Q: What sequence folds into this?
């Protein structure tokens, strides 16, 4: 990898580790390989959002042309969010695409992602199903997103979500994969019949 | 010449180049010098932590050659220029607003503030603290500074280790050749052994031990086992290369074929002549017309002479000098010498006629068996010897073979007659046509018998000729068919090649120095590669290079662009093109211990640029790439040009 990219990542890595946010356990990065081409990021679900209390893992790949091209970032933790693919974890965020600027760093990227979790942009969606739900049934979206966070991001559970757990468990007992069942239910407003239909077809 | 359109890419890159030129007018040469040495910020150990205002937001190191932008931010000059270069529509790295040109200024104030800061040179061996401003000077003497090998082997060492490296390890250090005592670079030893004139090697064909100096001549002229091409390949004999010692045999076996080929060649010549001369008085007087053919006989005649030495292996030389061997062995040169006063083409046609007329010793009569034993040959020779004695031509008087002599005799008649007639008249009265000498000086012979013989032979020759002409036509038809098939094949091959590269195209620019000179002289400033596809059903592009740069990069940088071309799949592809394009100049240094330092730039397609729209012409006028791809000077330092060849790699990855 180009010299400048490695030198930059080393410095940015230090910057994140030393940052205030890291001290508050809001963001974290760790190295995957010695070449600084791949990193693992982690952001905490922002307070007063369905993601609160969750920990979201990110895959960060550094291109050779870094910092002149943005790092490739996607969610490894499954998440229900209009701007993040519920299937692949791909993120739709302008600064990771054409609005990237060479002066941005890992820290700013992680903080921007955190901000994205607090303020979704349903008009520029990555996952159309989620975005539609977000716009048409905000309450259901919130519940679903919270449920996903509990299921995948270790967010604390609360009693009132038991209904969703039951539905997923029912489908799982029928022999469906738990994650597929959850995805189908989420996509069909937790309607058992339609979800089952979707799973069978 | 102006480049083929203002490529959007270099337009913006050029802007960066110009803007620096404008901010510091008059210092242009220096700017280029600095660019060469420039890197990102100061990577040193600061005595006290560096304040963030002295840190470049791009490389996060100490500002080197600081510049300020309109919006009040500081960067290393290298970093901001690189940032602008990387991006197709350049933006300021911090505010992300569009960068529109002349907006970078030297920040000498910051420079003055940074220079007095105390630093420690971050190499292990060095512990001295100093002011940053002294670092450069220190680096030029410090024993622990990394220095490139002065012989440009590409390795880097601590300065103190350089002498040792030059003495013991450097692959480019000079060593003495044990054979010729010339000094040669260490890593050239093997190559040198191949060339060293005093080294003795076995010939690759016959194993005879010879020095390199002798080898070339040996293989070109002497070696009996060297592979040579039949000399009739120039007229179309397509037999594969054979060992020199087998050439004579081939010539014997293929006499008929060669004759046919020669005749064919002659025919073509004749046709061309008729075509040019228009309505010539007598289309049948071949020799007369041949003399007018604007045709360089030197191309063919020396060849005939050469053959003499070429195809006679030492073992058979004696036989040949006795004259019993093949029509070319000695007849042709004789005949050629005979007519040396005449025009070259006349000579050629004479010798060819002589050959055509003579059935030769190998196949005396059409349809009959060839000579199988020497007795038979002698028997035949006895029968006709009287005829050969009376012939006035030296070529005939030497006792080659009877049939050859007879052929030559017949030729003598032709020579004497007013023209070459293929109808019966000249054949029926050859003795009268040829005039007295052959008969008057005659030794006793049975005139009727030999005349009948000769007549019969001539009739046969005539039929044979007719058949040959027929076959020629057939062959020509086949040749035409073959030609069109070959063309189709090449076309297909070309197509497959350009489609099968899977988006990575390697362009070898041979004769770089010549092409570069042409670029400097302005004869051909721009060159395009062949087209290639990103995948079998992908986009078609080509690479364009300006070997002497273009516009503001003229004379300093090599410029590299890609141009989209009309492809077979444009209708099913998505336009504008989106994806990544990587352009590289390959490092050809073959030293395995050392990582290749390719010059590589990657760019991401911007859909708004004309360069990425669907081409409406064969090749999109707008290209995209870098005006200042690499310094010409750094290219010529060696590792990027080997054997006068520059290798460019272009990888296109659609999204």
A:
């Amino acid at each position: 990898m180009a010299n400048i990219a490695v030198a930059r990542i080393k410095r940015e890595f230090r910057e994140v580790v030393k940052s205030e946010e890291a001290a508050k356990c809001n963001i974290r990065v760790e190295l995957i390989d010695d070449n600084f081409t791949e990193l693992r990021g982690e952001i905490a679900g922002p307070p007063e959002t369905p993601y609160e209390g969750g920990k979201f893992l990110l895959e960060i790949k550094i291109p050779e042309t870094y910092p002149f091209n943005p790092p490739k970032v996607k969610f490894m933790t499954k998440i229900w969010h209009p701007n993040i693919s519920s299937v692949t974890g791909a993120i739709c965020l302008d600064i990771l695409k054409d609005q990237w600027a060479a002066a941005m760093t890992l820290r700013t990227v992680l903080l921007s992602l955190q901000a994205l979790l607090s303020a979704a942009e349903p008009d520029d969606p990555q996952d159309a199903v989620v975005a539609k739900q977000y716009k048409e049934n905000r309450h259901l979206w919130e519940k679903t997103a919270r449920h996903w966070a509990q299921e995948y991001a270790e967010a604390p559970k609360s009693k009132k979500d038991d209904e969703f757990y039951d539905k997923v468990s029912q489908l799982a007992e029928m022999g469906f994969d738990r994650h597929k069942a959850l995805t189908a239910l989420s996509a069909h407003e937790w309607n058992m019949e339609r979800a089952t239909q979707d799973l069978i077809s | 010449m102006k480049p083929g359109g203002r490529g959007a890419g270099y337009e913006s890159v050029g802007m960066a180049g110009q803007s620096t030129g404008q901010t510091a007018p008059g210092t242009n040469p220096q700017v280029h010098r600095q660019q060469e040495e420039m890197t990102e910020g100061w990577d040193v150990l600061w005595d006290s932590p560096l304040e963030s205002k002295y840190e470049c937001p791009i490389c996060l190191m100490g500002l080197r050659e600081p510049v300020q932008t309109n919006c009040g931010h500081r960067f290393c000059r290298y970093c901001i220029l690189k940032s602008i270069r990387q991006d197709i529509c350049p933006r300021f790295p911090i505010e992300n607003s569009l960068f529109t040109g002349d907006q970078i200024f030297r920040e000498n104030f910051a420079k003055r503030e940074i220079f007095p800061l105390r630093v420690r040179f971050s190499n292990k061996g060095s512990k001295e603290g100093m002011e940053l401003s002294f670092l450069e000077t220190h680096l030029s003497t410090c024993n622990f500074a990394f220095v490139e090998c002065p012989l440009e082997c590409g390795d880097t060492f601590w300065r103190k280790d350089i002498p040792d490296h030059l003495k013991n390890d450097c692959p480019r250090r000079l060593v003495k050749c044990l054979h010729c005592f010339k000094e040669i670079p260490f890593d050239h030893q093997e190559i040198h052994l191949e060339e060293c004139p005093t080294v003795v090697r076995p010939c690759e064909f016959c194993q005879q031990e010879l020095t390199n100096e002798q080898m070339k001549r040996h293989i070109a002229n002497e070696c009996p086992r060297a592979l040579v091409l039949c000399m009739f390949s120039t007229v179309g004999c397509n037999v594969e290369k054979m060992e020199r010692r087998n050439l004579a045999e081939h010539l014997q076996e293929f006499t008929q074929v060669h004759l046919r080929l020669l005749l064919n060649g002659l025919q073509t010549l004749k046709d061309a002549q008729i075509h040019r001369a228009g309505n010539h008085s007598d289309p049948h007087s071949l020799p007369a017309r041949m003399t007018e053919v604007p045709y360089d006989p030197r191309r063919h005649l020396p060849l005939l002479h050469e053959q003499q030495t070429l195809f006679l292996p030492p073992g058979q030389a004696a036989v040949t000098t006795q004259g019993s061997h093949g029509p070319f062995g000695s007849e042709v040169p004789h005949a050629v010498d005979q007519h040396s006063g005449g025009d070259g083409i006349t000579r050629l046609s004479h010798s060819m006629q002589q050959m055509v007329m003579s059935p030769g010793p190998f196949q005396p009569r059409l349809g009959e068996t060839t000579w199988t034993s020497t007795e038979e040959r002698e028997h035949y020779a006895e029968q006709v010897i009287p005829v050969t004695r009376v012939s006035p031509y030296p070529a005939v008087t030497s006792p080659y073979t009877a049939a050859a002599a007879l052929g030559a005799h017949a030729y003598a008649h032709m020579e004497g007659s007013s023209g070459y007639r293929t109808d019966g008249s000249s054949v029926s009265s050859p003795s009268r046509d040829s005039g007295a000498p052959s008969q008057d000086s005659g030794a006793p012979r049975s005139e009727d018998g030999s005349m009948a013989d000769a007549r019969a032979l001539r009739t046969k020759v005539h039929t044979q000729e007719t058949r040959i002409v027929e076959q020629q036509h057939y062959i020509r038809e086949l040749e035409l068919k073959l030609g069109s098939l070959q063309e189709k094949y090449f076309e297909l091959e070309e197509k497959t090649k350009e489609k099968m590269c899977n988006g990575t195209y390697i362009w070898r620019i041979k004769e770089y120095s010549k092409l570069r000179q042409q670029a400097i002289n302005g004869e051909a400033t721009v060159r395009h590669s062949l087209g290639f596809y990103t995948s079998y059903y992908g986009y078609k592009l080509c690479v364009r290079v300006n070997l002497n740069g273009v516009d503001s990069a003229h004379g300093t940088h090599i410029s590299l662009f890609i141009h989209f071309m009309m492809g077979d799949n444009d209708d099913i592809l998505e336009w504008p093109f989106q994806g990544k394009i990587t352009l590289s100049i390959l490092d050809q240094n073959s030293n395995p211990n050392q990582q290749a330092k390719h010059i590589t730039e990657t760019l991401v397609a911007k859909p708004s640029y004309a360069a990425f729209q669907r081409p409406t012409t064969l090749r999109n006028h707008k290209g995209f790439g870098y005006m200042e791809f690499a310094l010409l000077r750094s290219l010529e330092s060696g590792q990027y040009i080997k054997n006068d060849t520059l290798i460019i790699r272009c990888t296109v990855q659609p999204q």
